[in-house]
Every structure is written in structure tokens, then in C-alpha cells.
Design goal:
With about 475 residues, this protein is α/β, with parallel strands linked by helices. It has 14 helices and 14 strands. The chain is globular.
């Protein structure tokens, strides 16, 4: 029996070691590829002013759809930012998804909303719409009041009402920079036939100063959890998603800010209402539809910080958010599992889907298994101390290296932190995240598997301050 247990430990240790080598090779390659992507982006923008886009005949109007649920503390600043965007023609559709606070009342009072008689084609089934309003102050603003159906259902309601061929899905608490749409639309101008979606980097609004719907002062968050997430966002967006985009393998355009072709989204049935990972789910189903119909396509990524959003600052809220994210990933992969390793779906089936399955979906299970085996070996006296120390040091060094490279990519592409001390703080946290924080996130993502198997579909509670204290529950 002891020999069998030891053989199992050795086999598992080998699997974990191989996994560790492969994942770090992938992430390092993505980071290098991202560097070339940023060089290309900076070279192109050097010779093209984004304001010149106003003069191009190919520019298409955009419908911005912003679901809002209990966003009374930050909704006005967010809408003001949307109404002040620099773009030739667009509309802003705010979907009040059954809020239980004063979100709708504040919108009605602030923007002088008036009920409108609206005739529209119900292309996608949604929860009942109670009323539709238009602002007397700014005709670009349309507000839908509907029964609660969660974010995907709210986005579908906005799609039904929208007028324009491109739509932009954002979070109700997001702040966009004035030139955000001009930057996002560029791939649709470069390749209008093939481009079906674009995404951009999301940066943290925690600690920033916002006036009149615009970020006026960028500061490092004081909250330690938020500082760890600054690092995570830089690594995820600049170190991974840009690289995947360059390899034509991007499977997610963040729900906080993404631009899509409306006709393709409607052909796929819009957002799947029963999913909690609506952003990734839509991209995967769009890819599936386009591959099956042999339609050439392109999904791009813009390496520029153009959307600011708030992240959780409490352990409970962060845990609820990450459980929801990982459940969404599991749900999307399992729902579209026929694409895995299927040559019919090209690079999506042969590389993108397997990558997300092996390194993103089941990665936490492998990582936690490694910690469990380490503890077991420690108590059983089977620990190879020189190898363990070497492995740990190597893992920490590689993790820190990837984090620092992501920070440098962020500063190289945009230089958004006004003080050098802020860059040093983020670099310091790349060291600290290896102590407890990374293990905590892995455990939370493992919990998502249990919730998924048990069929729990609660959105959980996410506390947000907005631009003052607020509390959100979905």
C-alpha cells in the first residue's frame, strides 16, 4: 500500500511539474507577443490622430448599452462620462434591471427623463419592459426600466431597443475616457468585413478622482486587496489577452467594455440569459457560429486604458466576484465542449479552447493539489527538501518576473501612473502576492467548481463604494 501511495505521489508531482513548466512558457510567450502588439499599436497611432476618425466615411454609429442594478451612488458620474464621449454618432441605453434602490429615481430627476412611446422589434426574449424613457436634456440618453433578469437579460433588452449596427456593452459603474469609442472602433475601420468584436484594457478606478464623469487624478488605491488587483488586471489584459489576440485566440472581451457587431450577435441569439459569464459566452458562441458558417472573422484587442471600473475591497466581495467569474468560465467551456480539440473550429478548437480548459479552468485544481501533496509529503517525511526549495524559489521568481513585465508593459503603453512610487508599489505587490493572496484566489476558484456541481447560481453580494458608499447585490 505504501508503494502504491508513493507511486501516486510521484505521478501527481510529475504532472504538476509539467503543468508548471507549460503554463509559465505560455504566459512568457504571451507577454513577449504582447510587447510586439504594443509596438505595433504605438507605431500606428503615431501617424493617425484618433480625431481624424471623425472624417472617415466608414465610421459606423454605436449603441452603448449599460445595464444598471442598484447603482445609485455611481450611476450619474458613469452616465455623464458616456454622454461626453467624442464620437460622431452614438446613443446611450441605460437598462435599469429591476433595481431596488433609487437608481431609476435619480436618473429621472438628474436627466429629466420623459416616458416615450417606443415601437421596437423584439428580436430576443427578455423579462418584461415596464417603461422606456428619453432624456429631455440629452436625446442621446434612453433609459429602459424592466423586471430583474440579471445582466445578460438586461443587455438583450438593450439590443432590442438599439438602433445602430455596432453596440458597446459596459458595466453600469464604468467610466470611459472621452476618446474611448474612437480607439475601440479602429479595428472596424481597418478590417470592416472581418472584425466582429474588439476589447480594451480595464483599469481600476479605486483611489482615482472623478469629476464630471471623467477621471481627473490617478492614484494608487490604499486598500491592499485593490493593489493586488491592479497587478492582476495588468497581467491579465496586457500579459495574456493582448498575446491571445495577436494569436487570433482571444475568447473573452470583458463585459465591462467591449464593442461588437450587432448582426452577428443577433444571429447567435444575443446573450444567453441563463449564463453568469455572459461576456465570454457570447464570444465563444460567436466564434462557433462563424466557424460553422465558414465566415472569416477577427476579434481584436486595444492595449490602451480606456475604461475605469471599481474592484472589490473586502475579502467577502472579492471571493463572491471570483467565484462568479470562474463559474462563468466553467459554464461556458462545458456548454461549448463540442468545440474542444475539434479541427472544424480551427484555432478556436485546437488551441484557444484547450488553453482555457487546461490552464484557466482546471488550473486552480492542479495548483491546490500541489499544495495538498506538499503538506502530505511534509508530514510523511517524504519531502525532497533541495528540490522543494528550488521549485518554490523558481515559481516565485517566474511569477514576479511575469508580473513586473506586465507592469512595464502597462507603463510603456500608456504611462498612466503619474508617480514613479506607484510603479514601485505595484512591483512590491508582485512579490507579496505569492504569500497567501494567490493561494486564497486559487481556493476560491476551486470553490466555484463545487458551486457549479451543486447547481448554485447566486450572484452573491459585491460591496462597492462607487464615488461614495454603496452596496450591490446581483
Amino acid at each position: 500500500m505504501a508503494g502504491i501511495i508513493e507511486s501516486i505521489f510521484r505521478a501527481t508531482t510529475t504532472i504538476i511539474l509539467v503543468y508548471f513548466i507549460l503554463i509559465n512558457i505560455h504566459y512568457f510567450l504571451f507577454t513577449v507577443i504582447s510587447l510586439f502588439g504594443i509596438f505595433r499599436y504605438l507605431y500606428m497611432t503615431k501617424y493617425l490622430s484618433f480625431k481624424d476618425i471623425f472624417q472617415l466615411p466608414l465610421v459606423k454609429p454605436i449603441s452603448i448599452i449599460a445595464p444598471a442594478y442598484n447603482e445609485e451612488k455611481g450611476i450619474v458620474e458613469s452616465i455623464n462620462s458616456l454622454l461626453s464621449l467624442e464620437y460622431p454618432l452614438y446613443e446611450v441605453i441605460v437598462v435599469n434591471d429591476g433595481s431596488t434602490d433609487k437608481t431609476l429615481e435619480i436618473l429621472i430627476k438628474t436627466f429629466e427623463l420623459k416616458k416615450a412611446n417606443w415601437v421596437f422589434k423584439k428580436s430576443i426574449e427578455t423579462k418584461p419592459i415596464k417603461s422606456i424613457y428619453r432624456s429631455a436634456l440629452n436625446p442621446k440618453l434612453i433609459v429602459i426600466d424592466k423586471a430583474n433578469g440579471k445582466k445578460a437579460d438586461a443587455l438583450n433588452a438593450g439590443l432590442n431597443i438599439s438602433h445602430y449596427p455596432l453596440f458597446c456593452g459596459i458595466d453600469g459603474d464604468s467610466i470611459l475616457e472621452k476618446d474611448a469609442l474612437m480607439k475601440m472602433v479602429r479595428p472596424f475601420l481597418e478590417d470592416p468585413e472581418r472584425t466582429v468584436a474588439t476589447g480594451g484594457i480595464i483599469r481600476l478606478s479605486n483611489g482615482t478622482e472623478v469629476k464630471a464623469g471623467q477621471v481627473t487624478s490617478i492614484r494608487m488605491p490604499r486598500n491592499w486587496l485593490a493593489r493586488f488587483q491592479v497587478l492582476e488586471y495588468l497581467r491579465a489584459f496586457l500579459g495574456v489577452r493582448l498575446g491571445l489576440s495577436m494569436l487570433r485566440s482571444l475568447l473573452i472581451v470583458s463585459g465591462a467594455f467591449g464593442l461588437f457587431r450587432k448582426d452577428i450577435a443577433l444571429q447567435c441569439g444575443g446573450y444567453r440569459a441563463k449564463t453568469i459569464g455572459e461576456d465570454m459566452d457570447l464570444i465563444v458562441r460567436m466564434r462557433k457560429h462563424l466557424h460553422e458558417n465558414k465566415i472569416p472573422f477577427r476579434i481584436s484587442y486595444i492595449p490602451d486604458p480606456i475604461c475605469w471600473t471599481e474592484v472589490p475591497e473586502t475579502i467577502k466581495s472579492l471571493a463572491n466576484q471570483r467565484v462568479r467569474w470562474h463559474k462563468g468560465l466553467i459554464e461556458t467551456i462545458t456548454h461549448s465542449s463540442k468545440m474542444l480539440f475539434n479541427p472544424r473550429y480551427g484555432i478556436t478548437g485546437l488551441f484557444a479552447m484547450p488553453f482555457y480548459l487546461i490552464f484557466e479552468m482546471i488550473g486552480p485544481l492542479i495548483e491546490i493539489s500541489g499544495y495538498v501533496i506538499f503538506i502530505c509529503c511534509l508530514f510523511m517525511g517524504k519531502l525532497n527538501h533541495p528540490f522543494t526549495i528550488l521549485f518554490f524559489v523558481l515559481a516565485v521568481i517566474l511569477g514576479i518576473l511575469l508580473s513586473i513585465l506586465s507592469v512595464l508593459l502597462g507603463e510603456f503603453s500608456s504611462r498612466r501612473y503619474p508617480r514613479l512610487s506607484y510603479v514601485f508599489i505595484v512591483t512590491l505587490f508582485s512579490f507579496l502576492e505569492n504569500i497567501l493572496y494567490r493561494q486564497f484566489i486559487s481556493c476560491i476558484r476551486v470553490k466555484a467548481f463545487a458551486d457549479f456541481i451543486l447547481g448554485k447560481d447566486e450572484w452573491g453580494t459585491v460591496e462597492k463604494k462607487g464615488f461614495s458608499l454603496s452596496k450591490e447585490k446581483r
